[in-house]
Write a structure and sequence with these properties.
The chain has about 210 residues and is of the alpha/beta class. It has a single domain, classed as P-loop containing nucleotide triphosphate hydrolases (Rossmann fold, 3-Layer(aba) Sandwich). It has 7 helices and 7 strands; from the N terminus they run E-H-E-H-H-E-E-E-H-E-H-H-E-H. It is an enzyme of class 2 (transferase).
């Protein structure tokens, strides 16, 4: 049987730099096969709801995510089985019919705003990371993403941030920081913290019997 993969959770608020941290991990472990499971891909299917109801979805609440499916897929990948990762259609506000085929890898990064909120997910992680970035930086990044990638208007992004994103961050995301093993201020720009995290990952890989080509 192959060595058990190392599972790393990367959490943090919207626009905190979770993706930058994940890319930094991948660059530092280019001798390993790595995959990423984005929690954003695991929003619940809402095809049974009228479109008007879907528009009211609070994507920053824990109940928006299908963690049961995410956990099932993570378990299968740990057992060296492939999965069909779902995708989400943000324009229709429901799960797309398309899936992404994912093969098991040596390192699995589970990334999302609330991946540390569910105790079942936390228990599956070898290393838990929280990316901690100032709110003003995060809102600017979210504006750019939602306007450029999701076709949102500036007014709608600001309204959603004030009425939904910020209160959900304070209620659900920020408290999960206490579950993290490593806190990385300012995301991918904090090279010292990322180097320390890389050392920890290397230790866990060694403990699990993985060998390094470097």
């Amino acid at each position: 049987m192959k060595d058990k993969p190392v599972v790393i959770g990367v959490a943090g608020g919207t626009g905190s730099g979770k993706t930058s941290v994940t890319r930094s991990i991948m660059q530092r472990f280019s001798d390993k096969t790595i995959l990423m499971l984005e929690q954003d891909y695991y929003y619940k299917d809402q095809s049974h709801l009228p479109f008007e109801e879907r528009l009211q979805t609070n994507y920053d609440h824990p109940l928006a995510f299908d963690n049961d499916l995410l956990i099932d897929h993570l378990n299968q990948l740990i057992e060296q089985k492939s999965v069909e990762k779902p995708t989400y259609d943000y324009k229709m506000h429901t799960r797309s019919e398309e899936t992404v085929h994912v093969e098991p890898k040596e390192v699995i990064i589970v990334e999302g705003i609330l991946v540390l909120e569910d105790e079942r997910l936390r228990d599956m992680m070898d290393i838990k990371v929280f990316v901690d970035t100032d709110a003003d930086v995060r809102i600017i990044r979210r504006m750019m993403r939602d306007i450029n990638e999701r076709g949102r208007t500036l007014d709608s992004v600001i309204d959603q941030y004030i009425n939904v994103v910020r209160p959900m961050h304070l209620q659900f995301v920020e408290p999960t920081k206490r579950y993290s093993d490593i806190i990385i201020p300012e995301g991918g720009q904090n090279h010292v913290a990322i180097d320390l995290m890389a050392s920890k990952i290397q230790t866990v890989l060694h403990e699990k019997g993985h060998t390094f080509s470097k």
